[in-house]
Design a protein that fits this description.
ATP Synthase, domain 1; Single alpha-helices involved in coiled-coils or other helix-helix interfaces; alpha+beta; 2 domains; single chain; about 120 residues; six-stranded antiparallel β-sheet
Amino acid sequence: MVVAVGENGELGIAPGHAPLMTTLKPGPVRVLMKDGVETVFFAAGGILEVMPHLVTVLTDSAIRAADLDDAAAKLAKEEAERELAERTITMEFTEAQAKLAKALAELQAMERLRKKARVKR
């Protein structure tokens, strides 16, 4: 099973799902294997394509959740917030919004991972 955050909310794609194509928001992509092993990635938005026996995620960047850098994500969030507050002519507003959304989604993915780790203990 694959679980991801689409433009209209969270999607759960089980084996044999009907074909589908949707855009993804920046956020976690969880892959649940038959044996119960779960792998979590952070995708910086993109496109999700579902075929009867294949799920494809097209994204500019994907990082294993365990490899996310908390300090770097917090720094990126602060920088994007500062850019939005300054709104200079040279700064693209939508670009700063996208940076902020990505940083917030990374931080949320890391928090989910931390909560999951605490539950397993």
